[in-house]
Amino acid sequence: MNDMSKITEVDPITLQVIRGAFETIAEEMGHVLYRMSFSSIIRESQDLGAGLFDINFNTLCESESTPMHIGSIPAYLRGIAETLEDGEWYEGDVVVHNHPYYGSSHTPDLAIVVPIFLHNRLIGFAGNTAHHVDIGAATPGLIIDVPDVYAEGMLFAGTKLYRKGEPNNAMWNYIRRNSRAAGQLVMDIEAQVASARLGAKRFVELIEKYGENVVFSAANQLMDYAERLTRNRISEIPDGDYSAEGWLDDDGRNRDKRLKVMVTLRVRGDEVEVDLTGSADQTPTAYNVPFEGSTKVAAFAAFRKLLLDSATSDMRAPSNEGSFRPIKVTAPLGSIFNPRAPASAEARFTQCNRMIDLIIRALAPPQTASRGSILRADKGSVLRAD
């Protein structure tokens, strides 16, 4: 919905009803995915994310799933927009996407996206991501000592598994013949397809009940509300630069070489920049972090847990695009957090956790600070974590 002149103010009761509907749709999508899946990494650890998105790729709602999937799918959608097979969305399409240099978090996280149409008009997307056991990489499992992204397994970029409702059998057969765990892989993808299709169905049902204008107006109000909550919390932190540095053991090949992680937070009013300048250069192994799909997402997850945790906040922020808007992330191209293609970048999890640790450490209160006080360090301080 692009015509902002049609946006109207939704009354508080209807707004809360639609907010509840959004949250229920996202959670139902997640439940269908992990209950239908066959691999333990999805079925038991719930390494997944699911939600609804508008045509501008804003997150309208997302499931409460693994933190590293928070806010990740919009980057996939932007990558799909660059690479989409046929260059056009049609009703009944299903796209698979996992290219780390086109928005993916890392190659094992396949996204499944379906377009949502209303009266033959594209109005949004339903999508999910999930980690898969084996996508045909050089070695089984999560790999690190590989030379480039091509060794990480099958790469999908805007690839249609269904075209106008018809299965792309050549692609399905390709997937079956290029995985050590083909049965689990195919059945898990089928679960993702079912989840995304359900989300699209529920979104259309919601619009049919309340009207397109009301639903999208409510979505925009809820995004603005989440943004205000985030900005209010950031504004409680005194303006300044807050830094912390730490180390990673090695890149998986050069065992005697530690890798530096440097985090500088620049707080200005109600916005914050997470600057990773000073962190290690990209590595010759898969110990790099895709910038759009993982580095930025780690920053979103860090500030959501710092500032919007339900245990410390009086009001619960909706899980949508609004909470990401005040957060900017910077990392030099060619660094571990923003590698140049085609560097491999599959084993990115511990780097993200270290980055989150250092964001928290940079804003940590003095030991004498009272519990519940705003997290902060002295302006300009550098904290070291070995």
Helices and strands: which structural class?
alpha+beta
Indicate the mean pLDDT: 92
Order of helices and strands: HHEEHEEEEEHHHEEEHEHE
Major β-sheet strand ordering: 2-1-5-4-3-6-7
Number of helices: 8
Count of strand segments: 12
Strand residue percentage: 15-25%
Could you tell me the radius of gyration in angstroms?
Answer: 21 Å
Helix content: 25-40%
Backbone shape? globular
Oligomer: single chain
Unreliable stretches, pLDDT < 50, 5 or more residues?
1-5, 368-382
**Sheet with the most strands, sense and barrel status:** 7 strands, antiparallel
Span of the ends, CA to CA: 49 Å
How does this model look, in words?
This protein is of the alpha+beta class and 386 residues long. The chain has helices at residues 12-36, 40-43, 73-83, 169-176, 182-210, 212-235, 291-307, 349-362, and strands at residues 48-54, 59-62, 94-97, 109-118, 121-131, 159-163, 166-167, 240-248, 259-268, 271-275, 327-330, 382-385. Helix 1 crosses helix 6, helix 5 (182-210) crosses helix 6 and helix 7 (291-307) runs parallel beside helix 8 (349-362).
